[in-house]
Amino acid sequence: MARPYKIAKVNISINLVNNDYKTTNNICELCKTPLYGKGCIVGKCHHAFHKECVRGLHGANNTLISCPIDNSAWHLAYTTFA
Ligand SMILES: [Zn+2]
Ligand SMILES: [Zn+2]
User: N or C: which end of the chain has fewer CB within 10 A?
Assistant: First the structure.
């Protein structure tokens, strides 16, 4: 006979917030507006910025040399699309 069992409580939370963005409070430090809804670049230092803001920093070159927040050498982790 199968033992009856009870599932006490299952909390399934789907985290829709990109963890990397937490580092920047979901705000682009370059323009002080929310990161969502626009393409962003995220560095290995977990700082994220709008692609268009980064492009504005270095003219035609849309990559960063150093992180605008911590001034460490910029290593791109990934980019997102709006
Ligand atoms: Zn921005
Ligand atoms: Zn950084």
Answer: N
CA-to-CA distance for 47 and 28, rounded, in angstroms? 9
pLDDT at residue number 49: 92
Q: Which CATH number fits domain 24-79: 3.30.40.10, 3.30.365.10, 1.20.120.140, 3.40.50.720?
A: 3.30.40.10
CA of 48 to the centre of ligand 2 (A): 8
CA 80 remoteness from chain centre: 8
CA of 13 to the centre of ligand 2 (A): 28
- Amino acid at site 24: T
Q: What is the DSSP letter of 52?
A: H
